[in-house]
Specification:
By secondary structure, this protein is of the alpha/beta class. The protein has 2 domains: 184 residues, Glycogen Phosphorylase B (Rossmann fold); 157 residues, Glycogen Phosphorylase B (Rossmann fold). Helix content is 39%, strand content 15%. The strands form 2 sheets. A 7-stranded parallel sheet has the order 3-2-1-4-5-6-7. A 6-stranded parallel sheet has the order 10-9-8-11-12-13, with helices on both faces. Strand 9, helix 9 and strand 10 form a beta-alpha-beta unit. It starts with a strand and ends with a helix. The model has no long low-confidence stretch (mean pLDDT 90).
Amino acid sequence: MELKVAVVAHGLGISSAYSGEGKIYQTFFEMLYERGVSYVALSFAKPRIKIENAVYILPFSLPKFDKYQRILVYFSAKKVKPKVYLNASGVPIPLSHIAPHVIYAGAPSIANLPSKYTSSIFWKLYLLPFKTIVSKFKDEAKRAVFIANSKYSAKAISEVYGIPMPKVVYPPVDFEDYSKAFGDKSERAFLTIARFERGKMIENSIIVSAKSGVKGYIVGSLIEKGYYKRLEKLKKELNANVEFYPNLPKEKLIELMNKIPVYFHPTIGEHFGLPVIEAMSAGLIPVVPKESGAYEIVPEFAYSNIDEAVVKLKEALESNMRDEMRRRALRFNRKAFKEEIFNEISKFL
């Protein structure tokens, strides 16, 4: 059978849990399977989850060096000759000489936006080789077809690569699953969902809890154990009323969502933030950074700094906008996402 689509999914070799980016991979695979389109998944390191039709170079998984695996996946990609590459890793690696290159992307990490890569000399030095290499891919970016996951990301992609503003297709959410958690929201508390890694800025959730006196529940995949220990130490130092739930199963997360009325998103500079929409599906009211893609969805409860976040958190706890939030979340359904993405790649099939 002729290979039609190669899905660039570098993160398969990094995490055994489906992160927000991983959920995009999963949706791409579903989309292609449902359409009867032949495909392979491409990662640099061996996938940490069971997946058929995977092509990779490194014979073992590698949970580190996420940014550089986005480039190194090129060596897997050049081994195949599909009709089109569908790249969920965001980097315009040089593939257009083999087949058309469609890229679903958030804001580039080399953009001048708040992130862990602008927070310290260490992270700036870590990113420097990546930035140098990716800056050489600007010609590839002009040949590729970009699709952005938010207007925030689209603007950054356009500025970094010197291309017109790309089309925006917001990421999909399992609305039906999370809507089961609409619940009575009986506890005065907030929920944060984020991987336990430095770039997610979970310390902001702890500080907000300490300053507001509102209990926080923090759920996410445990990626960086050292960072997790620092968060536990910060919790004790601030005497913050927060509970950590690393690697919580989805059904337990839905149980938590049943009783919690507000979602707090700590990650400033987040390209979008899929957990925000998942929470909205369950009737939680999100408090989000103004410097993020989520601001486009819930501007009413956006903050610029921690003190403002405390104010917005308390406003959200008193809000009666639960039904409105769930209504907005309906826009982010998997079916619509699959149709829009398939329309883009079908031009090359």
